[in-house]
């Protein structure tokens, strides 16, 4: 086999792509991965949007901004005196970049460890032949590789606001939002989704006056309504201004910042002058430049690659995963699909259960959930029981000094099977995993209620919420 002939080529080195490549190599395939991301020096920056301008850097900034807020507002309650508190945004951004590089380098190491060949450049289809699919790599030097099977994992791009394209100086996508060099006095966000709320939280903590403009009349419509209301109450208390039901009009970017004309929920004409605007109105599949038409790869009207339930495209031997296909645009969903596809190629039975994919919003308080919401269960007519437990009554939360929020269980009225678990509060991004495991094993609320949880721990709120389904909480 030549150096340019592979069993499997993965186009894209984000969470889905690099994990798919590694799993395929573990299963004995000769694998190559193509990725075009570059670091500041022009070298490879594996990890895709998630590692470079998404999940990882945003969490680094969220952690830094949380430390700053604690030092300025919470330490005094612990008897810790802070005098002359200052902020070095450049250092904060530098730490974020270091965290990103550590993740980039970690993937390079994993490729070497698993003998995955890496090609730095943009991958695109050329043609199909008896040898498989020819893929062109446009990088420092153009080259061509061939594979019997191809996994497309090209991810997604931020959706721009019509009439107001990203300039990454005043009108920012998630990329620019992670590189703001100084705390803006006034910051606006269009869209109250995951990215918008997380970025709004970062800069609000650091001192910006933040306004969120959301077109929908409800806040976090995908979240359980009770949890969303609790979160909105907490964000409002933090002076994060959230306006719902607005219609954004003309957006103008100039030397002094950005002006936004909009109509409020009551139909009144409003205007907002800010230093920076972050646009967070969703993401679009990244298939531009893939040259899908060269091999007849079928796309839908959104530009996403059409796949069946097993991530097979309309072409034999071509698969697609992650943000570039249907389903939630989540890094961990892409990873699971990558593993499943590699195993299917090896004749195994890889499986992804969309009903047990957890969701997390890393604000403060954090929001996390898995399964169905109460409004979904009502709409479907399924009889259910609900149980909630507040962190206010949790000993560890009191010791942390963060008692905002609750844990909520939804279980089938007849069988007690857990149908959904919803949380808002401290560290719920970690607590939600117990619920995912429980739902994968078709556990009942009673199962969780009967499991011993360490004391004192935040996880006791999970046990108590499960007990609340049967109206027998012990500590509330």
TrEMBL record:
UniProt KW keywords: Cytoplasm, FAD, Flavoprotein, NAD, Oxidoreductase, Redox-active center
Gene: lpdA
Chain ranges of the Pyridine nucleotide-disulphide oxidoreductase dimerisation domain: 357-466
Molecular function via GO: dihydrolipoyl dehydrogenase (NADH) activity
Cofactor note: Binds 1 FAD per subunit.
Catalysed conversion reaction: N(6)-[(R)-dihydrolipoyl]-L-lysyl-[protein] + NAD(+) = N(6)-[(R)-lipoyl]-L-lysyl-[protein] + NADH + H(+)
Protein name in the entry: Dihydrolipoyl dehydrogenase
Domain FAD/NAD(P)-binding: 6-338
Cited InterPro entries: Class-I_Pyr_Nuc-Dis_Oxidored, FAD/NAD-bd_sf, FAD/NAD-binding_dom, FAD/NAD-linked_Rdtase_dimer_sf, Lipoamide_DH, Pyr_nuc-diS_OxRdtase, Pyr_nucl-diS_OxRdtase_dimer
Xref: SUPFAM superfamilies: FAD/NAD(P)-binding domain, FAD/NAD-linked reductases, dimerisation (C-terminal) domain
PANTHER family the record matches: DIHYDROLIPOYL DEHYDROGENASE (PTHR22912:SF224), DISULFIDE OXIDOREDUCTASE (PTHR22912)
Family: Belongs to the class-I pyridine nucleotide-disulfide oxidoreductase family.
Further details from the record: The active site is a redox-active disulfide bond.
One protein family per Pfam: Pyr_redox_2
């Amino acid at each position: 086999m030549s150096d340019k002939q592979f069993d499997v080529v993965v186009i894209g080195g984000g969470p889905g792509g690099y994990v798919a490549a590694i799993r395929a190599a573990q299963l004995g395939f000769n694998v190559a991965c193509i990725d075009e991301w570059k670091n500041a020096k022009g070298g490879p920056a594996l990890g895709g949007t998630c590692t470079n301008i998404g999940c990882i850097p945003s969490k680094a900034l969220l952690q830094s901004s949380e430390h700053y807020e604690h030092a300025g507002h919470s330490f005094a309650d612990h008897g810790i005196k802070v005098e002359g508190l200052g902020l070095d945004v450049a250092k904060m951004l530098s730490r974020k970049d270091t965290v990103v590089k550590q993740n980039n380098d970690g993937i390079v190491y994993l490729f070497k460890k698993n003998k995955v060949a890496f090609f730095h450049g943009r991958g695109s289809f050329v043609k199909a032949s008896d040898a498989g699919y020819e893929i062109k790599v446009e990088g420092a030097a153009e080259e061509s590789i061939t594979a019997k099977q191809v996994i497309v994992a090209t991810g997604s791009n931020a959706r721009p606001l019509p009439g107001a394209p990203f300039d990454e100086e005043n009108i920012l996508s998630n990329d620019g939002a992670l590189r703001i060099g100084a705390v803006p006095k006034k910051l606006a966000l269009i869209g109250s989704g995951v990215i918008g709320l997380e970025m709004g939280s970062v800069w609000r903590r650091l001192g910006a006056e933040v306004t969120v403009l959301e077109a929908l009349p409800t806040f976090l419509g995908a979240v359980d309504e009770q949890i969303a209301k609790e979160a909105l109450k907490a964000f409002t208390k933090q002076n994060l201004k959230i306006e719902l039901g607005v219609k954004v009009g003309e957006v103008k970017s100039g030397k002094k910042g950005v002006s936004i004309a909009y109509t409020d929920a009551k139909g009144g004409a409003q205007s907002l002058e800010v230093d920076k605007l972050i646009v967070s109105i969703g993401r679009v599949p990244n298939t531009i430049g893939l040259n899908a038409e060269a091999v007849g790869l079928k796309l839908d009207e959104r530009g996403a690659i059409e796949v069946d339930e097993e991530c097979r495209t309309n072409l034999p031997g071509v698969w697609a995963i992650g943000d570039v296909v249907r389903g939630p645009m989540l890094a961990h969903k892409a990873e699971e699909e990558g593993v499943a596809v590699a195993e299917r190629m090896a004749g195994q039975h890889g499986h992804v259960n969309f009903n047990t994919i957890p969701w997390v919003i890393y604000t403060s308080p954090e929001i996390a959930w898995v399964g169905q919401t109460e409004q979904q269960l009502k709409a479907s007519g399924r009889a259910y029981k609900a149980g909630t437990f507040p962190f206010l009554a949790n000993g560890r939360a009191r010791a942390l000094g963060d008692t905002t929020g609750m844990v909520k269980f939804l279980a089938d009225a007849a069988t007690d099977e857990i149908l959904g678990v919803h949380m808002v509060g401290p560290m719920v991004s970690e607590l939600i995993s117990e619920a995912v495991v429980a739902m994968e094993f078709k556990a009942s609320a009673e199962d969780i209620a009967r499991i011993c949880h360490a004391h004192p721990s935040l996880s006791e709120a999970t046990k108590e919420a499960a007990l609340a389904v049967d109206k027998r909480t012990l500590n509330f």
